[in-house]
Amino acid sequence: MGLYPEIEPYDQGMLHVGDGNHVYWEVCGNPQGKPAVMLHGGPGTGSNPYFRRYFDPAAYRVVLLDQRGCGRSTPHASAYDTDMSGNTTSHIIADLERLREHLGIGRWLVWGVSWGSVLGLRYAQTHPGAVSELVLTAVGTGANREVALMTRGLGQFYPEAFERFLAELPEGERDGNLAAAYNRVIESPDPEVRARAARAWTDWETAMTPAPPRSIPRFEDPVFRMGFARTVTHYWGNDHFLGEGNEEGVVLRDAPLLKDIPGTIVQGSLDPGNLLGTVWLLHQAWPGSELVLIDEVGHNAGAPGMVDALVAATDRYAARGV
To answer: Cα–Cα distances in Å, from 204 out to 36, 178, 276?
Structure first.
């Protein structure tokens, strides 16, 4: 099956969303097609033209955006003077609603990858009337125990890299929430301290990739690296701004609220988040959801089997109409 051919947007712009923020958006495909919005990961990676190709351009009106502080949105999180207090889950959900109304869309299919799956789930739980379907991959729920797994639990599998990861933190900061500790260091007024911390954070993320060569080219861009590390530690260190009760997961707790929204979860069998059983728990708690497991794939929506399953899901939902 594979991806659809490359396509360019037919409309794009910068939406003022308040707090001095402007969010970049673009639309491609069929202007009269079924609306869909793609939510990128990170938080803080930005959108990618690659993601346009998961949708049939004849059937869908596909919206992509760069969430606050990343990609082409302004101000960028890599700039030290960018105020991160206005960058939270509730702020981004409000941005989605502003963009939906700006584009004159009633309901849209929500497609989310990694952090985008957390955001998509919470958006659907809080604005169910705006979401026609969900397609999610590399799924997490933003629970604190998921953050603990990614920042500390996996250290036993990558001990040498984990030792380097801890070494960049002051000794007194190595026993608690490591994401919060890294965020405090990244907010240092010393640019060299900030730069070393951002590099150490992305080195740890790179170390967790499942197979050689363990390299992620975008982390070699110092602007991307700083913006990404600052944003992801800001969210991971603050309960993903999901509120009280997030140890086991607010999103997972509220999964029954999705009972009227069809959804497909496409997950690699080797995704490290599976160690906590997150996707199985979500699937069981979400009436009417479909879980598709792809063997021998990790946290990678672009793997061939993952691509086929994700395109099959959007093709199937296209037939349901608007």
So the answer is: 33, 12, 20
Specify whether 315 is catalytic.
no
Give the active site residue among 114, 117, 132, 289. Answer: 114
Say yes or no: 279 and 314 in one domain. Answer: yes
Judge whether 114 counts as a catalytic residue. yes
Q: What is the DSSP string of 93-129?
A: HHHHHHHHHHTT-S-EEEEEETHHHHHHHHHHHH-GG
Model pLDDT for residues 191-243, shown as the tens digit of each residue: 999 999 999 999 999 988 765 556 688 899 999 999 999 999 999 999 999 98
Which regions in the chain score pLDDT beneath 70? Answer: 210-215, 321
What is the domain count for the chain?
A: 2
Q: What is the pLDDT of residue 1?
A: 73
- pLDDT value of position 214: 61
Q: What is the pLDDT of residue 213?
A: 53
Task: Decide if 117 is catalytic.
Answer: no
CATH number at residue 94: 3.40.50.1820
Residue 3 inside a domain? The answer is no
Last residue of a domain, one of 197, 220, 241: 241
Choice among 76, 91, 234, 299 that is catalytic: 299
Q: 116: which 2 tokens?
A: 């985008």
86 burial type by CB count under 10 A (0-12 exposed, 13-18 middle, 19+ buried): middle
Whether 134 and 101 map to the same domain: the answer is yes
Q: Which of 241, 264, 296 lies at the terminal end of a domain, its last residue? A: 241
Question: What pLDDT is attached to residue 209?
Answer: 74
Q: Which of 117, 132, 271, 289 is catalytic?
A: 271
Kindly state whether residues 252 and 308 are assigned to the same domain.
Answer: yes
